């Protein structure tokens, strides 16, 4: 994998966009995520790559109703299955956090880079990549000031990150710039268009300092207006109530246990969402973008 040296062609700054001055909102967000990474991020990585891949399978590749460890795994699993073989692709783990997605994609054969606003999170990700002997470059970087070369990535992917960056005016232009002309960007997000789901969020959402923005279809379309193609695949209506269920402790020695009740709710959802007008009330969305 080529190293993106600060002076190389692969690290050109975007013309006309200078370093942003101090932003109090961004600084508060950075402080929160740095503190979270210091306290928790290293727990994402067990000692061996084999154990990590099994943990990732349980967290991101197993539907919640099938015993998965993550409320949001269903849509993420769907995305990774649709992407398929990533060997040889240049992939950007966009807003990588502790880097688990990028590490998994690298282990699957992709050439991976990743960035996050949190330098502490990027540090943890880099440590894990070295431990597992994977060639991934994670860096602290601002979504409004990406230092990658233009037309560089085949695929940009992010899980739960757009609701952080959508409020920053230059982020969309930089995302578009770093994608190849034939490149794709895929994001999995939560939607805030359903007032009933938002009422439930009052009891399940904490830490306002994390910088979350209420993500709506209208806001997504505004952020993505410079792209050639945007497709929104909305998911989960009643099934969003899974947020009220407590995920299990993440113990690799314990087998996954299916959740028949939530399987029933998901099946009911699939029937209800055959009515197109009900899709506007879904709680999750997959964004497929093309340059």
3D architecture notes:
- The protein is α/β, with parallel strands linked by helices.
- It has one domain: Rossmann fold, CATH 3.40.50.
- It is built from ten helices and seven strands.
- A seven-stranded mixed β-sheet has the order 3-2-1-4-5-7-6.
- Helix 1 runs parallel beside helix 5 and helix 2 packs across helix 4.
- The longest helix has 17 residues.
Class per helix and strand makeup: alpha/beta
CATH H-level homologous superfamily name: Vaccinia Virus protein VP39
CATH class: Alpha Beta
Low-confidence stretches: 1-21
Order of SSEs, N→C?
HHHEHEHEEHHEHHEHE
- β-strand percent reads 15-25%
Spatial strand sequence of the major β-sheet: 3-2-1-4-5-7-6
Roughly how many Å apart are the termini? 24 Å
The backbone outline, from C-alpha atoms, is: globular
Number of strands: 7
CATH fold descriptor: Rossmann fold
The helicity comes to 25-40%
Profile the largest sheet. 7 strands, mixed
Task: Compute the number of structural domains.
Answer: 1
Query: Architecture, CATH level 2?
Result: 3-Layer(aba) Sandwich
Count of DSSP H/I helices: 10
Instruction: Tell me the Rg in angstroms.
Output: 19 Å
Average per-residue pLDDT, rounded, comes to: 90
